[in-house]
Design goal:
Number of strands: 18
Number of helices: 13
Number of domains: 2
Largest sheet: 10 strands, mixed
Helix content: 25-40%
Distance between the termini: 72 Å
CATH topology of the largest domain: Creatine Kinase, Chain A, domain 2
């Protein structure tokens, strides 16, 4: 009740008349309804009902009533003021009419998985690197700059937009560690400060929305599409991860040659073992697999290393006195995933490795893209699924993902991916017309 009173006082103080209630569907698309300030107290106390039958992954038509229940911790004022005055937002949990967590709510799936880690004495911290592109509009891929990695090339509209986006995020209470131009033309990156996984998933959804809105207000289009340009690097969402036991980093071991604890090694082994079946969640679109190809810095092979950036998992080198920063980086995900589900399956895979004592194979420091097939086979290096069809087949047989998502969401997710692949594979593309029409 104290939190509710604090929010109501803030709304009166700032003369906020409209509040957006945000939630996320199964595919990670942001949904919203807007209420007036006069309805806010009732919404905070009891939630707001709506028909969930048309929301992807939510209720069936015959059981469509669900409730959006705002989380008071997520109250933020949007960092722009329309003509009608300031607007605030609250992120919601979805419940059934009886107050139970709704099984189609991705935020609940992550909460449930975090509770499992909490029961084991761990907090799950993540730090994503969010890559994205700016284009002139949403009808094509005309770039707004020709810069490259870390370039500072004035005048650069992308740099100004990136800075304005970081300032807007900070106005909403988020901390950006670093922003910079990425490798491809018109590609940029914003790195968020390490945080608890639930708050970070909320922040990822917020970052995507704010980035797009700042771009729109300046007449350009921002996209988190994984691979919009065929001949350029795609956009990833490298996820740095660690487990903390209280205030102690459970991944650090001063006596280990890699400074990794047994828990860290088993956790990473869990990610590696289950990577083929969780990749459909962390890379959920047909276009995601256009990025996961050799030659564009994205991982293709299931392996780990410390220095080698051609691997799927990288463990940054330990620096003396930086025990709290010990972590690993999972390089496969892209920024168009559902962050709630992506963080949940990553945590579940890691915990499975710890519970079942999976053994971590030796690191691969050589460039895997230059290895012969015979050497890759000898080292046990396997390839990730190469398209959405293969990834969907793998996830459909995954008991781990089924347990994480629950039966309701699991079936909805797999069916959605099957439909997407079927819709894609019947398309006749421009490539086929250019290649075959003149000669066949």
């Amino acid at each position: 009740m104290a939190d509710i009173k604090k929010i109501l006082d803030r709304v009166r103080e700032k003369k906020i008349r409209h509040i957006q209630l945000w939630f996320t569907d199964i595919l990670g698309r942001l949904k919203s309804m807007e209420i007036s300030n006069t309805e806010l107290e009732g919404a905070l106390e009891a939630g707001v009902g709506f028909d969930g039958s048309s929301i992807e992954g939510f209720a069936r038509v015959e059981e469509s009533d669900v409730m959006a229940v705002p989380d008071p911790e997520t109250f933020r004022i949007l960092p722009w003021t329309p003509l009608e005055g300031p607007v605030a937002r609250l992120i919601c949990d979805i419940q059934d009419p009886y107050g139970n967590p709704y099984p189609g709510d991705p935020r609940y799936v992550l909460k449930k998985t975090l509770k499992k880690a909490g029961d084991l004495g761990y907090r799950f911290l993540v730090g994503p690197e969010m890559e994205y592109f700016y284009f002139k509009d949403d009808q094509g891929v005309e770039c707004i700059d020709q810069s490259g990695y870390f370039d500072l090339t004035p005048p650069d509209l992308g740099t100004d937009l990136r800075r304005k986006t970081a300032q807007a995020l900070e106005a909403m209470g988020m901390t950006t560690e670093c922003t910079h131009h990425e490798v491809a033309r018109s590609q940029h990156e914003i790195d968020l400060r390490y945080n608890e996984a639930l708050a970070m998933a909320d922040d990822v959804m917020t970052l995507r929305f704010v980035t797009k809105e700042i771009a729109r207000r300046h007449g350009v289009h921002a996209t988190f599409m994984p691979k919009p340009l065929m001949s350029e690097n795609g956009s990833g969402m490298h996820v740095h991860q660690s487990l903390f036991a209280g205030e102690r980093n459970a991944f650090f071991d001063a006596d280990d040659e890699y400074n990794l604890s047994p828990a860290a090694k088993a956790y990473i082994a869990g990610i590696m073992k289950h990577a083929p079946e969780i990749i459909a969640v962390t890379n959920q679109w047909v276009n995601s697999y256009k990025r996961l190809v050799p030659g564009y810095e994205a991982p293709v092979y299931n392996s780990w290393a410390r220095r080698n950036r051609s691997t799927m998992i990288r463990v940054p080198l330990y620096r003396t006195g930086q025990e709290m920063a010990t972590r690993f980086e999972f390089r496969a995900p892209d920024p168009a995933c559902n962050p709630y589900l992506a963080f949940a399956v990553l945590l579940a895979a890691g915990l499975a490795g710890m519970e079942r004592n999976y053994e971590l194979p030796p690191p691969i420091e050589d460039n895997i893209f230059r290895m012969s097939d015979e050497k890759k086979s000898r080292l046990g290096v396997t390839q990730l699924p190469g398209n959405l069809y293969a990834a969907t087949r793998a996830v459909s047989e995954s008991e781990l993902v089924r347990e994480v998502m629950g039966e309701h969401m699991f079936e909805k997710f797999v069916r959605n991916k099957e439909i997407e692949w079927d819709n894609y594979r019947v398309q006749v593309t421009g490539y086929e017309l250019r290649k075959y029409l003149p000669i066949l």
